[in-house]
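Annotated sample (chain length 63).
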Amino acid sequence: MRIHTDIDRCTGHGICESILPSVFEVGDDGLVHLLDGELTETMRAALESAVVECPSQALRLEG
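Output written by the structure step:
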């Protein structure tokens, strides 16, 4: 499973970070950054929520 970010679409709302702060972080540049770490099946529901809740549709879950 992988998460993809479209930096051109990201507006830095931080909703993804609030849902899963161990995976997402909005940097000082106002864009989402993926933190190092393994994505596990136990995170799937939260990752799906982050994708759905992203107002700019900048996230995509694969796998």
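Annotation: The first helix runs from residue 15 to 19.
Annotation: The beta strands are 2-5, 24-26, 32-34, 59-62.
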